[in-house]
Amino acid sequence: MQENLLDQMRRAVDQLSYIHTAGRVIGVSAGTVHSACTQGETRVGDRATLHTAAGKRMAEVVKLDQVGAHLLVDGATDGVSINDPVVFQRAPIFAPHTGWIGRVIDPDGRPLDGQPLLPGAQNGDLNRSPPSSHERRGLGARLETGLAVFNTLLPLVRGQRVGLFAGSGVGKSTLLADLARGVQADVIVIALVGERGREVGHFVQDVLGADGMGRAVVVAATSDTGPQVRRRCALSAMVVAESFRDAGLHVLLLIDSVTRFCEAHRELAVASGESANLRGYPASTGPAIARLCERAGPGAGASGDITAVFSVLVAGSDMDEPVADMLRGVLDGHIVLDREIAERGRFPAVDVVRSVSRALPDAANEKENEIIAKARSLLGTYVRSEMMVQAGLYVSGSDPLLDAAIAAQPALEDFLTIKDTRGTMAHFAKLRQAIASSPMRPDAQAGAGF
Ligand SMILES: Nc1ncnc2c1ncn2[C@@H]1O[C@H](COP(=O)(O)OP(=O)(O)O)[C@@H](O)[C@H]1O
Ligand SMILES: [Mg+2]
After folding, report:
1. Is 172's C-beta closer than 6 angstroms to any atom of ligand 1?
2. Measured in angstroms, how far is the CA atom of residue 114 from the centroid of ligand 2?
3. Within 10 Å of residue 343's Cβ, how many Cβ atoms?
4. Is 290 within 8 Å of 328 (Cβ atoms)?
5. How far, in Å, from the CA of 345 to the mean position of ligand 2?
6. For residue 118, is pLDDT > 70?
7. What pLDDT band is residue 211 in, cutting at 50, 70 and 90?
8. What is the model's pTM?
9. Is the pLDDT reported for residue 394 higher than 60?
10. What is the rounded distance in angstroms from the CA atom of residue 421 to the CA atom of residue 188?
11. Which of 126, 346, 169, 131 is nearest to 257 (CA)?
């Protein structure tokens, strides 16, 4: 992949988008501008620059009709007036390059870290189709994750797509950063959709840190950008992931969050005339989520795989919330983080009982599956009776299974916080020890009522 700088620069110039049409503003409403323009050249998705008295405004074409183009303006439409000139140009070429590793870019492939950035040779298609299902491989081997809970109870395998569901401030972004540092992968691609600018800087510098950034590409669209930019953020990150996958690499793609992707999609869909349905999202949202998720997953032929984690903001613990509901159907597992667990200071605040990895039972051997089943049973039993136990209403000795669960609880809670690189085997040994701290020994299962 060595090529000289001059070739790279020549390509960057070739790939510049050109101005093709000019028009004038003929109507303005909240967020959208109607512009008269020559029909033939303009396409949905083209960019537009509005030259207003207050300066330039950027916009994107979301709808075309007989009169002209409907534009969605980045930010507010204040100051735009009738007859302001509008210049249209094609969307910039988005061509990922291996040199993007370690960099923070915007969804148009421009650097956000103040350093020059060169495009690659291949223009990525933001709306590319997923590999055909009959050519795709099945899920791959279990991955080391650096976190005991994901090495054992909720395994992550190559090509798996999982959702990470939690309320705000429960630890989604921190967990994604842990995965970015710990999961065995060649490249990590992270989409930060709609975070505040300050949060992007904090995430990159403090949460992800230099060791996380060393093999990561971060694509960020801050909350002050227009919905078209925020929606494109997830798609651009997918294009970056696909380019590395096509080169035969194993990519870990982290999208934080799909909820913001959907909110941006809703704003765009409503601006282009689609109506929101009863649950607040237009009908095209489900297919948009499905298309995005399907593009991640195992590759075909000589290409690598994209293992993906999609974070979803759920209000309270409402897993029937529309985005969570739409997403769950297209995933191979879900991780639920719980606010009460976070509040008592146990991180990652994974609610193991409500989380599922569909990679099981195949991802673990028979012995490991036995350990997992026992640990889940102990955790589940404790959760079901926790209130009674804590209120002092439980008389020890009346239920042997609950006695075992109570005895194992402290060791299991400790186990769930383990974050180190000792690996799956060592973590299974730890988990075995934790469940052995219950009177019901892990290898004395027969007749134990599990
Ligand atoms: N692994 C962790 N260890 C310690 N504190 C954590 C951990 N994960 C989250 N937190 C705490 O929770 C806060 C919110 O975490 P964050 O990942 O930003 O949540 P979210 O992305 O779900 O909004 C953090 O600022 C930190 O105080
Ligand atoms: Mg967050």
Report:
1. yes
2. 24
3. 10
4. no
5. 17
6. yes
7. confident
8. 0.88
9. yes
10. 18
11. 169
